[in-house]
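> call design_seq(struct)
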């Protein structure tokens, strides 16, 4: 029997990794974005959906079996997108009789009082309280996310970093594989977390990054006061018992470096 899956956040880091996984699993994928690409290929059906103003939601959800909800706005109005937008999506899902809403969350949202995490937790609660059957899967930070932060820091000659913060980053493709497995009509409630293969401090992460990039910048400890930094230092963003991914930070960085060198060589040809 065919299973029609709506993927929100289909243009994002995770959404991009989820699209082929869902297709390979035989799902009929409706990929949603506020601005769907005009040349997005034929593997998935692209559609315009805006969680804030409601564009598209009800029409799209009407013939959907499963929703994988990966849209988010960490840099924007997280309450409007992640909380109110999720509630709007859930109302439409309830009216349409959707079998399973898979909500993607983050390890530690209930322990670290960072405003984005508080909104993710509020969204988790909305999912749990909705009459729609649901699955909540929390993941740790993606390697690419940690990498983007270090790329920004790397522009300055000295790297001031909260070195004691502990993370367990994961390859987004490995996270996507675990999340795509949940995109079935069988809702499972809160399922085990999805984390990377090793817990590393920000100092470890930055030193490996510096080595793989062949840089020589000094790393300086930036003391961060407050409960958010304390939460990250305590390891609340990690799930030591749930090392799902196998690609280490170092391996991921080396692959990324090779891709970058190849692109630079192609550009100079
Ligand atoms: N990044 C990480 O390290 C990480 C780790 C663990 C869990 N997660 C979770 O994984 C999920 C995906 O994260 P990500 O890093 O892939 O996010 P992302 O790259 O920032 O992508 C966000 C997606 O949300 C869509 N979006 C934003 N505002 C929207 C709106 N108003 N209406 C509809 N769609 C909207 C964007 O699409 P358009 O702009 O095209 O509309 C984009 O596809 C989130 O739930 C996040 O909390 C992320």
């Amino acid at each position: 029997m065919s299973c029609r899956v709506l993927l929100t956040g289909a243009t994002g880091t995770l959404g991009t990794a989820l699209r082929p996984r869902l297709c390979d699993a035989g799902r009929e994928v409706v990929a949603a974005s506020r601005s769907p690409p005009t040349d997005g290929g034929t593997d998935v059906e692209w559609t315009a959906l805006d969680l804030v103003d409601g564009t598209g939601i009800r029409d799209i959800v009407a013939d959907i079996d499963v929703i994988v909800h990966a849209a988010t706005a960490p840099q924007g109005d997280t309450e409007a997108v992640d909380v109110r937008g999720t509630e709007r999506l859930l109302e439409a899902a309830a009216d349409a009789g959707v079998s399973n809403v898979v909500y993607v969350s983050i390890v530690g949202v209930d322990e670290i009082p960072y405003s984005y995490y508080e909104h993710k937790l509020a969204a988790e609660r909305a999912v749990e309280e909705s009459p729609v059957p649901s699955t909540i899967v929390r993941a740790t930070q993606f390697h690419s996310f940690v990498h983007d932060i270090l790329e920004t820091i790397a522009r300055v000659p000295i790297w001031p970093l909260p070195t004691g913060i502990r993370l367990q980053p994961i390859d987004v493709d490995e996270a996507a594989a675990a999340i795509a497995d949940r995109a079935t009509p069988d809702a499972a409630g809160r399922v085990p977390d999805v984390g990377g293969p090793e817990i590393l401090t920000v100092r470890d992460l930055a030193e490996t990054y510096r080595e793989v990039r062949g840089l020589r910048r000094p790393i300086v400890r930036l003391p961060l006061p407050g409960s958010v930094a304390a939460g990250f230092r305590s390891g609340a963003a990690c799930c030591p018992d749930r090392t799902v991914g196998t690609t280490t930070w170092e391996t991921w960085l080396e692959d990324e470096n090779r891709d970058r060198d190849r692109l630079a060589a192609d550009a100079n040809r």
